[in-house]
Amino acid sequence: QVQLEESGGGLVQAGGSLRLSCVASESIRSNVMAWYRQAPGKMRELVAIDTSAGSTRYADSVKGRFTISRDNAKKSVYLQMNRLKPEDTAVYYCNCMRDRGYWGQGTHVTVSS
């Protein structure tokens, strides 16, 4: 089964940027990849999705600010987050969809006001 490892989280001021990375243990070339997040006391929500066919979709709350991308040669998917807001504070999880969804351990993002 594929293993996923996220990195790139941290503390940033509102208006700043972060780039999250997710490295897979196997090829993700044919897999749908996504980023989710879970804020304290809230349910996990979809942030961005990248299909293996190259199309992307975003949650309304991050459209125009976040960009998902992938590098299949590096077995990696990224989330560029710009103009961050305090409400973006959450644990961000990488997801790989195969026979079931596989998850990384998450990376914390804290946006201070």
Structure, explained:
The chain is an all-beta fold and 113 residues long. It is built from no helices and eleven strands. The strands form two sheets. Strands 2, 4, 5, 6, 9, 10 and 11 form a seven-stranded mixed β-sheet that branches. A hairpin with a 4-residue loop joins β7 and β8. The mean pLDDT is 96.
Helix content: under 10%
Measured between the Cα atoms of the first and last residue, the distance is: 40 Å
Overall residue-averaged pLDDT value: 96
> What proportion strand?
over 45%
- List the total number of helices: 0
Biggest beta-sheet profile: 7 strands, mixed
Succession of helices and strands? EEEEEEEEEEE
Give the overall shape, derived from the CA principal axes. Answer: globular
Brief synopsis:
This protein has 113 residues and is mostly beta strands.
